[in-house]
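Before the break, one more example. Copy the sequence into your notebook; we will annotate it together after we see the structure.
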Amino acid sequence: MGEEKEDKSKTLEKLAKSEEAEEILQMVNRGIEFTKEILGENERLRFRVIQLQEENNELLRQAERGKLRRRLEEELMRLEEEKQRILEEYKRVEEQNREYAMRYVEVEEENNNLANLYVCSYQLHSTLEFKEVVQIIMEIIINLIGAEEFGIYLLDEKGKLLVPVAMEGKDLSSAPSFGLGQGAIGRCAQTGENYYAQDIEGTQRERAFEEPLVAIPLKIKEQVIGVIVLYKLLPQKTQFANVDYELFTLLAGHAATAIFSSRLYTEAQRKLSTIKGFMELLTH
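Here is what the structure looks like once it is written out:
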């Protein structure tokens, strides 16, 4: 009996040990499985970390590209503004150049006209023959002012009536005389001031004798001796230039002096001829 109990005890002990070993083995297996799971999860997390790092790097690269794009856009805007500023400056300089060029042409034309007027004034004062003086004045008006139809009126000896003495482009025999203060021409002689028609741009239309385009008084100091009257300009000259208005004054002064001198000379010659004739009568 004692042996049987001992055998049972050993058997139970073995069985207990076997169960304990099995339990330990199971625990070990579970530990192994858990370790595997942990290792797998760790690998998965490590891979995820790498993915996140790559995503983060990509985001950083995108952010850098965004910053670069913004910098490029800002630089492009700055360059565009600079281009607009340069274009505006270029336009301003071009406009100034055009103005300078136009002014240069005007000054050059003015110098040429003044030089021509100097030559013409020399011609005017180189003769005392009345007809030659009038002819030179007519040529000056054609060549310097560019008139096609015009005339010269002079006051009579009494200084009350403007009488036409020369016409270009109009019939002299049909030209009327004008009293002081009568019409635009008479008022020009009376006031001693230049007259300009209200439609001064209408340089090509036909005008009656009493409707001049421009009337310029011939004055010696403040004494008016006649009027130059313009009716129509040449086809190639559609309007007056600024220099023309200066030429009017200069021409009027030189022409008045030349006409006055030639009339004095003619009158002196006439008186001299009369005296010579009278002396010849006395000596015979």
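Residues 2-124 form the longest helix (123 residues). The chain has four helices and six strands. Try to locate both features in your own notes.
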